[in-house]
Structure formats: structure tokens, C-alpha cells
Design brief:
By secondary structure, the chain is an alpha+beta fold. It has 17 helices and 54 strands. The strands form 15 sheets. A six-stranded antiparallel β-sheet has the order 48-47-46-41-54-53.
């Protein structure tokens, strides 16, 4: 026993805080691991465990915050300590808020998303627990050999720090722990455990040293050293001697491992396990060329001597260390990971219970190295000898004991069906291309081989699609062994070369379960059903029976037309009682069930509603059925997209920006919907709401309806996904999955370049189920895995790629910008759009469409690359994204061409698919072996489900029957079809991340795009959608500045002291500062009034849909290209005081957004500063709608009114401006009259005499006259006095 005493500053509160945070993190991390294991069994159990763990985490954090507030004054605190306390408190409160939102479902997150969020919490708390001010140094234990340090172990001081508070105590304080020694210096290749030691460590204040040995296992005797002269109190014991000893037997049941690290160049390993317990060590047998070895071996450790009281061993047994190595024929075995296990202890007086197999995570350094399935038991040998222990099975010829039957998993015979589709993207192996690949499937020692592809380049698909084999698997799905996929290439002279491997560790996803049709329940009473408007993204359905047709009782009716779905701002509300349906003419469709008024919906099916309005009138033309079916108010005040400038043609971009607006409006709705915790969802997609506050909800519903009325007509919209389309539809792997084949070594040094190990991909699928009792039943019929599988022969496809825009691209030029353009690659075809590069943009609007042809499966990988254009040198790659078109083409989600919300024949939303909705519906019913579609007036029947809606329309006073609109709505509700339904891909735009090979894992921006595919053996579609960017429209804004009033007076006359200002007005459009214009100067305004009659003329280019001005100009004199910028249409008007000898004085300004600014007042008196603050949207006007307006607007400076201006705005198009030009200022054509300014308005510098007259004569005329008289009198008197003596003298002489 070694006791070391030293003196350190008492700042242990830092380590106490770190220990509390670390324990919170450990608890959360352990719970997260349990959740990950529960996911394999049940999503519901995993979600429940996640909520319980998060609630416990919240309570711990709040308890820590409360304890921190109580201990606000701690001695020896530094400024950094106080800042860290504030930071921890803020971070913990923020995390508690986010956790509460997750638990209360305010954030709609899947279980996997919640796991990622919790992982972020763990990383944040780990960062907070890292104390930057180390108070006490860490403990080092050195391993010496011949007085030379050969290895060491380091123990953080906080981990062994003692505290009377359990939460503050170090996790290893007063416990026996196993430490693994490391080599000093930098770790070398082939690193492994050098040695291990079991130690008992305790660190604390001397006032607590009496607790030093409290947790030490009992049964020792102390030998106390003699106390030194300067030591006070009882000396610590010098030696602890355990005399009581017991014999034990360790049984290590090594069953199998999975997901081990590849240590050979082939991508496989030859693993064996080394088990170390106390001072004993044994190894398992070597399994060649596998990453999932099954040893089924029991390692028997006889006569293990342990010291101490026998009662201590069940609670604190010694740990078992398991190391895994890769055996090499030449050289030392290579370390590939290790783990630690706690054995199950059974004493001699206890009843024996066999241990259960469990998974132990393996780590190689910081990198995960797979899992070990094993069990460890430590049995006390009784006095009668080892023969009294539980019996073991007889070893085989090589003296290897198998795992006992009562510990091995209970096996049952299973059948594994394998779908062999093909291999893709195969790289060269050993400098040769892969030409004749074959796939080998292996699971638990059994397997099957695919046929050999004769020529990979000609056809990479397999000729024989499926095969099967039988294998004995554990009944417990968690214990299923891994399934290995190996691809070999057959070369000349019968040689085979391993290409790559893939290991599937979890087989639960492939367990086949027969599809059960949902039971049809009776319709609940109408008064008890409340529809939840904001709870589901898909349209809700109601069960209804039309009066025209009496169907069989097992039919389910879905009234598509009258479905009430989510509003534009979805807030759960109650439906009013349905009004009686009006009488209908025969054949006009089923009556609606949701009352007379509808709420605008976010659901695609409801936005495309074509049912009759309240008055029962129908649309006049067939092509406008999609938009005109919803009742519209004739008192519409304005349109949503700035009236599209009245004359602007609605095109695809109108739909795009309407979709963006819808996405923006939908973002805050999630929290509003989540506030209602009493929503119950029934299996039939009917939302049932428990009514708590009916009056309040009815009021909210009326407010929604009123808001919907004011919103005006709605354009057709499409779905804009924030990520890849594959993430929304599970990678389109509904019937086939893509497995990456790996090759080469995998270590923590090169795990970042994961793509370098990917040698190719295998496409296939597996069905696992218990073998039938009759062994011949599976051979006589078709395999289950082949049901609904398409043919895999080559298919020629017409591909249309639409690239809409780039978002936040990585800059590639030194000035922080890029000149992006698009490159497409598929097979050997490459399309470069270099001539259409967009200069100096990181958010380019491409608006480009490309059409190309390809043959599946040879050309199925589409690569979209974004390059940076360089005038000199090679172009730089910004990023790329890859799309597997084959998976989309064959998917049951129908990823070939998205379904539009509305069916229209022509216009901006014209149907772009090659087949009509009724044809698509017929094909889906045929492929899924469903009865139908049976089309009758007003309804479509699919199997036992009936969809009702409008099918008869009026066109030019003629009755036209069309089932396309109702068929399209059925397609949008295809996921509701029992047994065969799935969500179909809607018309969409996906946002795909861009990646660069040299910067793995780092997004280089995003690209918005979509892909349409059409097989060439079907009727070809119409022309591609025109998504070319809108060209900005030329406008001219004419502003006449008439007058100003109440402008503050800045100048003061030196002579008179009178205040005045030399007023002039300046204006420009934002972004067009070079074209700023000024009025002339109204000099010497004594009252703040200015008269100008001055015209500003601002030509500009404008995009109505985006409500932005397009500005093209060079950023500097060295720029070769003009940079295009889009900025809001904002007009700035400023009033200034002119100074001749100094800089002008700024008096005030007003900023007017031309799309929404306050209406000017008729008089100057009614104009005040309130016009610029707290103005509702209803009181704003748009110059693009109003065209011409005149009034008074205020000038503001630092929140104070500094003047008023009377102006007239007139907006004309460039064509109108060319026909009717006007001059700037007061020039021709259409000159303005000169203003009637007062006589005092002049410049003293230009008119000095006028200045003397107005400023001096008019104010000092009396004094000037008196002064002149006095001067004359004085001169006369002076002359009189001067001439008097001479006159007198001459008078005397003459006498």
C-alpha cells in the first residue's frame, strides 16, 4: 500500500462540478445505448425508454442548476469560474427546453433523429465537464523493468476524488479498477495492451482519510508503520495482507463476434480472441477470412486463486479482458480491438444458474471495432472438488470445449431467400477490371452462390434472380448471427479473386412477415369525431356512403372532395356540424360531408380540389378544373404574388415561389399543433380530438376560415424537400437494397477516407422466415422474394434532369465567389453547360433542363457536378452529387415522374407525365393484383374501398365526364389502400448536398433539382417543362417632388439670428446608388417649406414573382464580368441642407419598400411619424398594383419627425416609357413648371446685391436712413468747421 501526502489549494469545487456533469452524461449515454438495443425489438419500447431517459436527464440538470444557485458564493473563485458557472447554467437550461420540446412532441422527430439530438447533448456536456483550470495533477502509474520505465497508466485526479456527496464523488474513487498500460511517447503501429493492473485508488482531504479503506474488500490484515516524529494522528497502514484464499473456475463462453475491423488487404481478417483473467490467459481457435467469426468455444480456467472474503466477489469480481487479434502467417498477430467483461459469480452455497449471452462492444483505440457475443461465469470450487461443478460437454478431437447447450441460443431451422439483382460501380482489383463477378452469401456456416455474370460491361445483372438455403438461427432475433456478402471475380485458368465484402449485423429488417389486411371497423358517430386540421401531412379521410349507389357492406368510402385537411396555418380546430347536403342532379357526384365552406389546405390532394362550391355551380372549362373548383370570393382585394403585375404571365416559377411561400408559412405551425396533447389518431387516418374547450376551438376555426377567405386564389404548388428524395422514401429500397462492398484495411488512421475502401456495390434483398414443415412446399411454387419483382433485362430510358438553383456553394475564387456551371455524367455520356456559367454567384439560379437517354442497368448512376468557370487554367470542381436512377425507376413509390397536385391539360401546370392518372391507377391495381379500378359516376372503387368525388363537369354548356381528377386524388391517397398501398412520389424539388472527394464529409453547398424518367417503349411525354430563369422586366419609376413642409431649420443668420435651411431632396433605388438624383436647392427656407416641381426618373429591372430588383454591375475595376444581384425594391428619399463652404447637413430620410409602403396622406397636417411605425399589412400599398399615387410622407431622423414631402409616384413599363418619355428635372418632354418660390429664395454667393437687399435693407432700412442722414449731417458739419476759418479769413481780407 502506498500513501502519498501533498499540499494543494482547496479548489476541489471545480472537480466536483466536473464529476456531476460527467455522471449526468454517463447516465444519458447508458440510456442511449439501451434505446439503440430496444430499436431492434420495438420502436414503441425504444420511444418510451427515450422519454423516460430524457425526463430523468431534465430532473438532474434542474437539480444541478438549483444547487449552483444556492452555492453562488464559493471561496477562491476566479473570474473564469464565475463565467463557467453562467455558461453551464445557460447551456443546461437551453438543453432542458429542447428536451421538453422533444418529450412533449413539440418537435416532430423520429426516434433516430432523437438519438442524434441526444448525442449532441452528450457532446455539449462533455465539453462543459472539461475543466480548463487543473487544480490537482493526475495520477501516473509506471511499469518498471530493470529500473527503466516501459509503460504507464494515467488516472485523472477527478475520477478518484472523494466527497461526502455521492454525485460529487469520482466514479473510480475507492473502487478496484483495471488499468491498461500504454507505451510512452507516440503510439506505433501494431499497438496493443502492454500490461494490466488491478488497483484501488483514493484521493481526498486528510480530514476524510478515515474513509480511505471503507470500500476495500474485507478480509485483509493491516501492518502499521511506525509514526514519524512530525506526524499527527494515527499513521496509515503500510501493508494490507489478505490471508483468506478461495479457489474459482472461470468459464469463458466465446460464441461469436460481428463487425470486426478488417486487418488484411482483402478486406477480411483471421480473428482469434485472447482472454485474460487475473494472471491467466487463453486464446480461441482462429477463424480464417471473416469479419463475423463463430467460435462456439468455451475457455476453461482451472484453479484460479482469489484472496479476500467470499461475500465480496459477487459484488466486485475481477474483470475479464478480451483482446482480439488478426492472425498473420508471417510476423506478429495484429491487434484489432479489445473489451472488458464482468463475470457472473456463483458461490459454492448458491444455486447454479447458467449465464446468458450478451453483446460486448469492441474498441480499437477510439474507433468502434464491432461486438462480441459471449458469456463469462466465475464458479467457486467447493471443498468436494471440481467434479461438483456443473458438468461440461465433451471436447472434440482438438480438445476444444463447445459452449454448453443451456447457454447456446435455442436454434430453429430458417429459410433464407436471396434476391440476386446485380453488381454496380465495380472498381479495378489487382490492376484488372472486374469482368465475371459472382456473389457468395454466408450465414452461420451455410450459404448459397449466385450465377456468374458472363460480362460485367455488357450486363451487370444476374440471369438467375433468386435462390435460397436453410440455416439454423437463434429464436431470439437479437442473437442472430451476421450475414456475409462476398463478391469474387473469376479470371483466367479458373482463378478467383476476392473483390469485396459486406457484413449485415442486424437481420431483423429482413425477417419476412405476412401482410395482414386491416380489419374494417364500423363508422363511429359523427358527433364524436373531430378532425384534427394540423396533425397529419396526408389528407384525412372520412367514411361516407353516397346516396346514389348502395354498395356492399364491406366497402369503405373515402370522400376525397369533402375532406377537410390542414389550413395554411394549421391549428387544431373543431368542425361545425355538417349542414344538410343540397339536392343534386343525377350523375353530378356525391354530396359533400364537411359543410358549405372549406378551409384552404396544405395537403396536395386538397389544394387540387375540384368539387362544386356552395352554390352548386361548376367550372366553365375543363382545363381550369384544377384551379377553379374551389369557391372564390368576388370581393378579393389583392392577390398573393403581388397581383403578378396584372399583365405578367403565370409560369412554372409562379408555382415554385408559391411553394416556397407555403414552406415558409408551414415552419412555425409545428409548435402550434404540438400544444394540443389530447389528439388521438385512429387506424383509419381519422383524427379524433378530445374536446376540452369547444368554444375556444370553434372561435379559432372561424378565424382560420376568415383568414382563408382573405387569401385570394391559390396557385398549384409542389413539394420542396429539404434533403434528398431518398431520405423521404427510405432510399427507394422497398424491394431491393444496395450494399457497399469493402476492401482493404480499416484502422483509425484512415477511417476518414471511407470511400477508398468501397470497391463496388451489390444490389439484392433477403427474406428470412422459419422453414415450412413440408420441405417441398417452397420448391414447388414461386419464392416469396420474387413476388412483385420486375424483370431485370436492359431498359432504355429517356431522362430529363431539371436543375433549379444552387444554395450556399463553396467559394472557389480568391474573391470569395464562384462562377458555377453544370456538368452531367451518366455512363459514358457527359453534358457540359460551360457556356452558361453564372458569374460571381454562390446562390446561382440555374433554371436549366437537360434531356438524355440511358440504358439500365449499364447506365444507372447519374452524377451532377457543379464546376467553377476559370478563364485561365482548368476549372475547379465545387461539388458533386450522385443519384441511383435504377432504384427510383423500379421502386413501388413510383419515382419516375412525380404526381402533380392538379390535373390540367395546358398552362403552367400542364400534366407532364406520359400516362394519365387513370392509366397509372389501372397499372397499379394490376401490379398489386387489386380489383379495379371500377369507375362509376362520382366514384372510383379499388378493391373494397370507394373514393367519391366530382367526375362530371360543364364545358361550354356541354356535360363532360372525366375521371382524371378523381383518379389523381386516389393516387395521392394510395397509401390508404390496405395491403398494397404506399406513398407515391409527388411533384417535387429535392435539395441535394454537394460533396468533394478531397473534403470528405463536408458539404460544399446544395443544389435544388428533380429528375423525370420515361421508358422509351412507352408513349413519349410532351415537351419538357420550361424552367429557364425569368428575364427581369424593365420598369421606369417616375417621381415628382412637389413640395416639402416643416423641414427643420439648421442654419442661423449671423446678422439677424433668423433660422433657415437651404433645402434639397435626394433619392435613389437601393442597389442603384450610381443613379442617385437630386432636386435643385430651395434657398433660405424660413418656415421649412420647399417648392421644387422636380422629376426623378429611375429605370430598373424587376422580377415580380421574387419582388426583387435585378442589378448587374462590376464590383471593381478589375472585374471582368458583371455580378448579378437581387435586392428588394426599396426607394430612399432624403432631405438635406445645402452648405456652400462645408459639407451638406443631413436632415432626414424615408425608406419605402415599393411592394408595401404606407399610403400617403392628402394634407401635410395629417402626415406624422406614425405612418412609418406599427403599420399593418392591410394598410400598405404596392406601387406595382397602384401604379400611380400622390400624397405626403414624413422624413425621419433618429426616431423624430424632421420634415414632410409631397411626392407623386408613377410606375410604367419600359415599353410605355419608350412610347411616352418624360424628361428629368423640368426638362423636355413633358416639362414641369418652375416652382413659385418666395423672393427670399436665392443664393447669396450668386446674387450678392439681392442678398443685401433682402437681408440688410429690408431689416435695417430705418437705421440705414437715419445713419445716412447722420453721416450727411456730420460731413456737412465737418466741412463747415473745416471751411469756416478760411471763409472768415478771406472775408476779413476782402474787407
Amino acid at each position: 500500500m502506498c500513501v502519498y501526502k501533498s499540499r494543494w489549494g482547496d479548489q476541489t469545487f471545480r472537480m466536483y462540478s466536473s464529476n456531476i456533469l460527467e455522471k449526468i452524461t454517463d447516465n444519458l449515454e447508458d440510456s442511449l445505448e439501451e434505446v439503440k438495443e430496444l430499436i431492434k425489438i420495438s420502436d414503441y419500447a425504444a420511444e418510451e425508454k427515450m422519454n423516460n431517459s430524457l425526463n430523468e436527464f431534465t430532473n438532474q440538470c434542474r437539480a444541478l442548476i438549483a444547487a449552483t444557485e444556492k452555492k453562488s458564493k464559493i471561496p477562491n473563485q476566479t473570474a473564469l469560474d464565475k463565467k463557467r458557472v453562467i455558461l453551464c447554467k445557460q447551456e443546461l437550461e437551453a438543453m432542458c427546453g429542447e428536451v421538453t420540446a422533444i418529450v412533449q412532441h413539440k418537435k416532430k422527430m423520429l426516434i433516430n433523429d432523437s438519438i442524434c439530438e441526444v448525442q449532441n447533448f452528450i457532446e455539449k456536456i462533455r465539453f462543459l465537464s472539461d475543466e480548463p483550470q487543473q487544480t490537482i495533477p493526475d495520477v501516473f502509474i509506471w511499469l518498471l523493468s530493470n529500473n527503466k520505465r516501459v509503460a504507464y497508466a494515467r488516472v485523472p485526479a477527478k475520477d478518484i476524488l472523494f466527497s461526502t456527496v455521492l454525485e460529487e464523488k469520482g466514479k473510480h474513487c475507492g473502487k478496484i479498477q483495471t488499468l491498461f498500460f500504454k507505451l510512452p511517447g507516440k503510439r506505433t503501429a501494431g499497438w496493443n495492451v502492454q500490461a494490466k493492473v488491478d488497483v484501488y485508488l483514493w484521493l481526498g482531504s486528510t480530514k476524510h482519510d478515515h474513509t480511505m479503506l471503507d470500500n476495500l474488500p474485507a478480509g485483509y490484515e493491516e501492518e502499521t508503520l511506525a509514526a514519524s516524529g512530525g506526524q499527527h494522528g494515527a499513521p496509515p497502514p503500510g501493508t494490507l495482507l489478505y490471508k483468506t484464499q478461495h479457489l474459482f473456475q472461470l468459464r469463458a463462453h466465446m460464441y461469436q463476434a460481428r463487425g470486426l475491423i478488417a486487418a488484411d488487404s482483402t478486406g477480411l481478417s483471421d480473428p482469434f480472441a485472447k482472454v485474460t483473467f487475473v494472471s491467466h490467459c487463453q486464446t480461441t481457435k482462429i477463424i480464417s477470412q471473416t469479419l463475423s467469426p463463430t467460435w462456439n468455444q468455451m475457455l476453461l480456467f482451472q484453479n484460479i486463486l482469489l484472496y479476500g472474503e467470499v461475500q465480496e466477489f459477487p459484488e466486485n469480481p475481477p474483470l475479464v479482458v478480451i483482446e482480439l487479434y488478426d492472425d498473420d502467417a508471417v510476423g506478429k498477430a495484429e491487434y484489432i480491438g479489445s473489451t472488458v467483461a464482468v463475470p457472473l459469480v456463483t458461490l459454492a452455497n448458491q444455486t447454479y444458474s447458467p449465464p446468458k449471452l450478451a453483446y460486448y462492444p469492441i474498441f480499437c483505440g477510439k474507433m468502434s471495432g464491432g461486438d462480441l457475443l459471449a458469456a463469462f461465469e466465475l464458479l467457486q470450487i467447493p471443498e468436494s472438488g471440481p467434479q461438483s461443478l456443473p458438468p461440461i460437454e465433451t471436447p472434440d478431437a482438438s480438445q476444444i470445449y463447445p459452449v454448453p447447450a443451456n447457454i447456446r441460443p435455442i436454434l430453429s431451422k430458417h429459410r433464407v431467400e436471396v434476391l440476386f439483382w446485380g453488381v454496380r460501380e465495380m472498381k479495378k482489383v489487382q490492376l484488372l477490371s472486374v469482368d465475371r463477378p459472382q456473389v457468395l452469401i454466408e450465414c452461420a456456416g451455410k450459404g448459397v452462390k449466385s450465377c456468374v455474370i458472363q460480362s460485367y460491361k455488357k450486363n451487370p445483372n444476374f440471369n438467375v434472380l433468386a435462390d435460397w438455403f436453410e440455416v439454423e438461427l437463434p429464436q431470439n432475433e437479437i442473437l442472430h448471427p451476421p450475414l456475409s456478402i462476398c463478391v469474387v471475380d473469376w479470371r483466367a485458368f479458373g482463378r478467383s479473386t476476392l473483390v469485396g465484402t459486406h457484413t449485415i449485423n442486424c437481420l431483423k429488417q429482413f425477417v419476412w412477415k405476412p401482410k395482414e389486411l386491416p380489419a374494417i371497423t364500423e363508422k363511429p358517430p359523427e358527433e364524436d369525431i373531430k378532425k384534427d386540421i394540423g396533425a397529419a401531412p396526408e389528407p384525412l379521410v372520412t367514411y361516407d356512403k353516397p346516396e346514389e349507389v348502395q354498395p356492399p357492406s364491406e366497402h369503405i368510402y373515402v370522400d376525397v372532395e369533402s375532406t377537410l385537411a390542414q389550413a395554411s396555418t394549421p391549428v387544431p380546430a373543431l368542425l361545425p356540424a355538417p349542414a344538410p347536403a343540397p339536392a343534386q342532379a343525377p350523375g353530378t357526384g356525391a354530396p359533400t360531408a364537411s359543410g358549405s365552406e372549406t378551409v384552404p389546405s396544405k395537403s396536395p390532394a386538397i389544394d387540387a380540389a375540384t368539387g362544386p362550391s356552395k352554390s352548386g355551380k361548376e367550372d366553365k372549362s375543363k382545363k381550369s378544373l384544377g384551379r377553379g373548383g374551389t369557391r372564390r370570393s368576388t370581393k378579393r382585394r389583392k392577390r398573393t404574388i403581388a397581383d403578378e403585375c396584372a399583365e405578367n404571365v403565370i409560369d412554372w416559377w409562379s408555382k415554385y415561389y408559391a411553394s416556397l411561400d407555403k414552406v415558409q408559412k408551414a415552419k412555425p405551425s409545428d409548435s402550434q399543433v404540438a400544444n394540443y396533447d389530447n389528439v388521438i389518431r385512429s387506424p383509419g387516418q381519422v383524427a379524433v380530438t378530445i374536446e376540452d374547450e369547444p368554444e375556444k376551438k370553434k372561435k379559432d376555426f372561424k378565424m382560420i376560415k376568415k383568414k382563408a377567405k382573405d387569401e385570394g386564389p391559390k396557385l398549384a404548388v409542389l413539394k420542396i424537400y429539404d434533403g434528398e428524395l431518398e431520405s423521404e422514401f427510405h432510399g427507394f429500397q422497398d424491394w431491393i437494397k444496395t450494399f457497399e462492398l469493402l476492401r482493404g484495411k480499416s484502422t483509425d488512421d484512415d477511417h476518414s477516407v471511407y470511400d477508398d475502401r468501397v470497391i463496388g456495390k451489390f444490389k439484392g434483398y433477403f427474406n428470412i422466415y422459419k422453414s415450412p414443415e413440408d420441405p417441398n412446399c417452397g420448391d414447388s411454387g414461386q419464392l416469396k422474394i420474387l413476388q412483385g419483382i420486375p424483370l431485370n433485362h436492359p431498359v432504355k430510358v429517356l431522362i430529363r434532369v431539371y436543375v433549379v438553383a444552387g444554395i450556399n456553394l463553396s467559394p472557389a475564387d480568391p474573391d470569395g465567389k464562384s462562377d458555377p456551371y453544370i456538368v452531367l455524367r451518366i455512363g459514358k455520356t457527359e453534358i457540359k453547360d460551360r457556356n452558361n456559367y453564372i458569374p460571381k454567384q454562390l446562390n446561382p439560379l440555374f433554371g436549366r433542363s437537360f434531356e438524355l437517354q440511358a440504358t439500365f442497368p449499364q447506365e444507372s448512376l447519374l452524377t451532377v457536378l457543379i464546376y467553377d468557370y476559370d478563364l485561365v487554367g482548368t476549372d475547379d470542381l465545387i461539388g458533386e452529387t450522385k443519384i441511383d436512377l435504377e432504384n427510383r425507376f423500379y421502386s413501388r413509390h413510383r419515382g419516375t415522374c412525380g404526381l402533380q397536385n392538379q390535373y390540367e391539360i395546358e398552362g403552367y401546370n400542364a400534366w407532364r407525365d406520359a400516362t394519365k392518372p387513370t392509366e397509372i391507377l389501372t397499372k397499379l391495381c394490376k401490379d398489386n393484383k387489386l380489383d379495379g379500378p371500377i369507375m362509376r359516376p362520382g366514384q372510383i372503387q379499388i378493391g373494397g374501398k370507394v373514393f367519391t368525388g366530382q367526375t362530371v363537369f360543364n364545358q361550354d354548356d356541354d356535360t363532360v365526364e372525366s375521371y382524371e381528377h378523381l383518379a389523381l386524388k386516389v393516387l395521392h391517397s394510395w397509401s390508404d389502400i390496405p395491403g398494397a398501398g404506399c406513398k407515391l412520389v409527388p411533384e417535387h424539388i429535392e435539395t441535394r448536398p454537394l460533396y468533394h472527394r478531397d473534403k470528405p464529409g463536408m458539404e460544399q453547398g446544395h443544389v435544388q433539382m428533380w429528375v423525370d424518367m420515361f421508358p422509351t417503349d412507352m408513349p413519349l411525354p410532351g415537351p419538357p417543362v420550361d424552367i429557364s430563369p425569368r428575364k427581369p422586366k424593365g420598369y421606369e419609376l417616375r417621381i415628382i417632388i412637389w413640395n416639402t413642409e416643416d423641414v427643420i431649420l439648421e442654419d442661423e443668420n449671423i446678422l439677424t439670428g433668423q433660422k433657415s435651411s437651404d433645402i434639397y431632396v435626394k433619392g435613389w433605388l437601393k442597389g442603384l446608388e450610381d443613379d442617385s438624383q437630386e432636386t435643385d436647392v430651395h434657398y433660405n427656407s424660413l418656415t421649412g417649406e420647399g417648392n421644387f416641381n422636380w422629376r426623378f426618373v429611375f429605370p430598373f429591372h424587376y422580377l415580380p414573382a421574387e419582388k426583387q430588383v435585378v442589378v448587374n454591375k462590376r464590383e471593381n475595376i478589375f472585374s471582368l464580368e458583371k455580378t448579378e444581384r437581387k435586392i428588394p425594391a426599396v426607394l430612399l428619399l432624403q432631405v438635406w441642407d445645402f452648405d456652400r463652404l462645408s459639407s451638406d447637413d443631413f436632415l432626414g430620410s424615408i425608406e419605402l419598400n415599393l411592394n408595401g409602403f404606407p399610403r400617403g396622406t392628402k394634407t401635410a397636417k395629417s402626415c406624422d411619424i406614425s405612418m412609418t411605425t406599427n403599420l399593418s399589412e392591410d394598410k400598405k400599398i404596392s406601387i406595382f398594383q397602384q401604379k400611380r399615387i400622390r400624397g405626403w410622407w414624413p422624413f425621419v431622423k433618429t426616431g423624430e419627425l424632421t420634415g414632410k414631402v409631397e411626392a407623386e409616384f408613377h410606375l410604367v413599363t419600359a415599353e410605355e416609357a419608350e412610347k411616352n418619355p418624360v424628361g428629368r428635372a423640368r426638362k423636355e418632354p413633358e416639362p414641369l413648371e418652375k416652382p413659385n418660390r418666395p423672393d427670399t429664395s436665392f443664393s447669396w454667393f450668386v446674387n450678392p446685391f439681392k442678398c443685401l437687399y433682402h437681408l440688410i435693407w429690408r431689416n435695417y432700412k430705418k437705421y440705414i436712413i437715419i445713419g445716412l442722414i447722420l453721416i450727411i449731417l456730420i460731413l456737412f458739419l465737418v466741412l463747415f468747421i473745416y471751411t469756416m476759418p478760411g471763409a472768415i479769413s478771406s472775408r476779413i481780407l476782402t474787407l
